[in-house]
Amino acid sequence: MLISYASILVAGLMPMICAGISKGGAKDYDNHDPRAWISQQGGFRARANAAQLNSFEAFPFFAVGVILALLTGVDPFVVDLLAALFVAARIAYVACYLADKALFRSIFWSVGYLCVLVLFILSMLNLQFD
After folding, report:
1. Which of 10, 37, 47, 106 meets the CB 3.0–4.6 Å disulfide criterion with 30?
2. What is the pLDDT of residues 23-55, one digit of tens each?
3. Is 122 helix (H, G, I), strand (E, B) or coil?
4. Would you say 52 and 5 are in contact if contact means Cβ atoms under 8 Å apart?
């Protein structure tokens, strides 16, 4: 379960990491009005901001899936495996977003989403893999 908990923490930090990437090193960054500033950005900064927003969107679904799976008695090893795969897919998703690799980004997004769906399905079925 430690991996599951750590995965929730990492997934929760991913939006902040993406925000740092979008703003980091910008000479003209305006902390007085960061939303207006980011809306005028293009390239990797705009993509990093989009990855940040998507990471915020993905986080609650993932966190609830992990917690539900653990509470309903799904084998912790399976939960750990799916949680780690989700985080790995999300890291690859962000990397592909930054590199402007749309097809691979969509594939990794799908892998992460599928992990969460499996967590919910296992929870609903209350399956255990002993």
Report:
1. 37
2. 988 888 888 888 888 899 999 999 999 999 999
3. helix
4. no
Provide the 3-class DSSP secondary structure of residue 112: helix
What domains does the chain contain, in order, with CATH numbers?
2-125 (1.20.120.550)
Amino acid 5 reads Y
> Which two tokens mark 9?
């923490």
Residue with tokens 């966190």: 63
Contacts of 56 (CB under 8 A, 6+ apart): 15
User: What is the per-residue pLDDT across 83-130, written as a single tens digit (0 to 9) for each?
Assistant: 999 999 999 999 999 999 999 999 999 999 999 999 999 999 985 555
